[in-house]
Write a structure and sequence with these properties.
Layout (H helix, E strand, L loop, with lengths): L22 H4 L2 H16 L5 E3 L9 E6 L11 E22 L14 E14 L5 E7 H14 L16 H10 L1
Length: 181
């Protein structure tokens, strides 16, 4: 198991745009190892449900989604998938605010901070799968929210760039809020 160093804001790489990965590189040993290392890094923490390779200092358009129960969202259902060069090609519905955090943005207690970020309810995406095959699909709900967050990472955008600073809450405050909502 290899745990990579997660880059923490204000590290300037987090505002860098990721480069697309070539189809021929998707199945390479180097990229497969990076994907496994990102998986291991996500597993080693208790909060993350997704991570883009830029967050570990590698500016390639690789996103690993590992949705699982977390201390702030204990009822999540398991979902794992890797997306290469993910792009949003369509949107449906309204923007719905949902609290989100990020492994690259920590509070004073070294735990994620949270804020309500409006994201589209449903998105259409195109991407390369783990075999380098072009795919298109429509996703909604929590997965759509997470993918929008991760695609923002690939474009050098952090969720804190999208919200009023006064709406940010600590991890402990978020746990209290979510228990009362």
């Amino acid at each position: 198991m290899t745990k990579l160093k997660i880059r923490i804001a204000p590290d300037p790489i987090l505002h860098q745009k990721s480069q697309p990965i070539k189809v021929t590189e998707v199945k390479s040993a180097k990229v497969r190892k990076l994907v496994q290392d990102i998986n291991d890094t996500l597993k080693s923490g208790e909060y993350g449900v997704g991570m883009s390779s830029i967050q570990v200092g590698i500016p390639l358009a690789i996103t690993v989604i590992m949705i699982r129960p977390t201390p702030t969202r204990p009822n999540l259902k398991q979902f794992n998938k890797v997306y290469f060069n993910a792009e949003i090609t369509g949107i449906e519905g309204d923007k719905v605010p949902m609290r989100e955090g990020c492994c690259s943005i920590l509070g004073k207690d070294d735990k994620p901070i949270y804020a309500k970020v409006p994201r589209y309810e449903k998105i259409r995406i195109k991407y390369l799968d783990e075999d380098g095959v072009a795919q298109e699909e429509t996703v909604d709900g929590f997965l759509a929210h997470v993918l929008q967050h991760e695609i923002d990472h690939q474009n050098g955008i952090l969720f804190t760039d999208l919200v009023d600073e006064s709406s940010i809450v600590s991890c402990d405050d978020y746990k209290r809020i979510s228990n009362s909502e």
